[in-house]
Amino acid sequence: MDETILVLDDNYDFLTNIELILEMEGYRVLAARSSAEALALLKQTTPDLIISDIMMPEMDGYEFYQHVRQSPELLSIPFIFLTAKGDREDIRFGKRLGVDDYLTKPLEPNDLLIAVESKLRRLREIKASSRQED
After folding, report:
1. What pLDDT, on the 0 to 100 scale, is given for residue 134?
2. pLDDT score of 73
3. How many other C-beta atoms lie within 10 A of the C-beta of residue 122?
4. CA–CA dist 77, 123 (Å, integer)
5. Any residues with CB less than 8 A from the CB of 74 and at least 6 apart, and which?
């Protein structure tokens, strides 16, 4: 597996734990503690998947998501919110924005891995299909 995942969370301990879980599964992880840091990483590389917290200072996860979706080259990247905002209205709002998945904290590592693998599998299928059409 050589897929790259960008993880954005302002909580250092949580970010480190997510990074460890994903790296143990063979993923390459780019970790960012702010939206500005994540946007700078996106200028350097295009990840296969983005996981973002919502509640962050300066630019929250909703704004970060909308900023990412404004870039045509980032439009097809699966995007998962991973947040403590677990009220039904919060979840509905995230899904209404168009996020690919919405996971809540505290998190079971297997739930994260299932969501990540299913989104990446779908992305691989789409890429394979578009290559066949060319």
Report:
1. 66
2. 92
3. 12
4. 8
5. 42, 46, 68
